[in-house]
What we know:
alpha+beta, 284 residues, globular, 11 strands, 9 helices, six-stranded mixed sheet, three-stranded antiparallel sheet
Amino acid sequence: xxxxxxxxxxxxxxxxxxxxxxxxxxxxxxxxxxxxxxxxxxxxxxxxxxxxxxxxxxxxxxxxxxxxxxxxxxxxxxxxxxxxxxxxxxxxxxxxxxxxxxxxxxxxxxxxxxxxxxxxxxxxxxxxxxxxxxxxxxxxxxxxxxxxxxxxxxxxxxxxxxxxxxxxxxxxxxxxxxxxxxxxxxxxxxxxxxxxxxxxxxxxxxxxxxxxxxxxxxxxxxxxxxxxxxxxxxxxxxxxxxxxxxxxxxxxxxxxxxxxxxxxxxxxxxxxxxxxxxxxxxxx
Length: 284
């Protein structure tokens, strides 16, 4: 299978189930995603306060399940406008996954990327997930930022459908910049939770490589090399180099399949924000 054919096909996570007709234009799909989801920690720009009991909605892993929740609140077609309280309350990862699912469904090669955004917190690289889609080359897109409310709130100076590579560092690029002394590990992570440094960076390398192999986990899932107190730095360096470059395609697969520390197992440890530590069995 060619690279583009591989990323045009759905994964277990992005398989959306039956869908009505969707627009084929990537921007139109991104706007659609933006109107179906709301970030559980970012409801204020929309004048909405999320009830505390809905915070764990973001533990929903699979695109079909996300859409089932959306339809359960409003059975109208997905293309119909939805009030903030009718949207799925997730995280940046869920925007990336659903956008990836819609792009693949309509024939555009796409993949989820895990890394760090420079445009969310001043002077800091915040843990973040976006979608990468093929349009005369691989482009980064942040569907979460497509709403005018978000563009204004974060004073974006670029098109969220074409995020500059210096504004979003994929996990491998962030790791390599820190390993080579071009960046400070303490400026990468989740500042609100005081999660920064090498452990965060290594976890992002592992999760991004998994996503490049179409296993799109949750941001707080961990396994193998991401769990090691004394990780194999050579292995993480190789994974980082391939992730930073987004290929070569065959090498991404070979390293992932041949490395038990990188390959996602049937069970992962999930360090959920509101529900504590869990052992989760993934769908095959």
